[in-house]
Amino acid sequence: MVNLNWKVVVNLTGFSTTVANDIYFANYGGDIYKLTGGTGSLVPLGQTSRNWMGMCAVGSDIYAAVKGGDVYKMTGGTGNFIALGVTSRNWTGLAVSNTGDIYGCTDGPIYKRVGGAGDFILYSTVIALSITITPNNDLYTGSYQQGSYKQIGLTGAFVSTVNLGATWGLSSLPNLNVYAAFTNGIYMQTNFAEGSPNLNGGKLKLVASGGKGGGTSRLEFFTGQKTGVATNMQTKILREYIDENGYHIYTSIPVHEDNAAALTAGLPIGCEYRTSTGIKMIVY
Hints:
Blueprint: E1 2-3, E2 14-17, E3 23-26, E4 28-30, E5 32-35, E6 43-44, E7 50-58, E8 61-69, E9 71-74, E10 82-83, E11 89-90, E12 93-96, E13 102-105, E14 108-113, E15 121-128, E16 130-133, E17 139-142, E18 148-151, E19 159-160, E20 167-172, E21 178-182, E22 185-189, E23 219-225, E24 235-242, E25 248-250, H1 259-264, E26 272-274, E27 280-282
Antiparallel strand pairs: 1-22, 2-3, 3-5, 4-7, 5-6, 7-8, 8-9, 8-11, 9-10, 12-13, 13-14, 14-15, 16-17, 17-18, 18-19, 20-21, 21-22, 23-24, 24-25, 26-27
């Protein structure tokens, strides 16, 4: 983690951000404040003075925990914070997974509320004063004296990460970087370059709609043909296509007898060509 050398300008005990970049701050023994769109001035929301501690956002819903009390919810970012009626605990932090489950720490065990309903149930006996969950569901905790821990993907054991004293607060960004507020400063752990383990890149699907009977259905690939005049528009030319039988057909594959001839003709390395007898080759 890298020390950012930030200065603490206010004494706040919890904060949370929404997808709309609204930021909510909790004041222990006071009100809850909102910074709309991440800019401008902090606006008090006129909430009942409580020992507010951890906060988290599930979409536009805001949750705020009270130390030695209940957990409260502001629905849709408007109105008052309403008690959930969960078991009173020594709440010190809240975090949400990418499935909407809420995790609460108590300067002791961690508790979990599944799917936004019911009470918080015991999740882990790891001692946690602060907590955050990254977008890929890595859970980080910090404690007063026992250092910081990480649980990868919300499964398996908690692994010790760093011990720089009391970890008063944790937060993470969409790029997976984690921020920690220790007694001696605020630090950042850079996870962006590491990426997510086993991250799928998705699928690119090119679909030619089906017709009826003997009708054709093709995927055709065009590019513009270079011209000798910079101001002339290029002509789009069909280079290859896949027909309704699954045949891959080249319409303009170069013809050369060997690699030397292909290089002389200006073909780049890795380019396909064929001989006059139909043998497919690759320039090397």
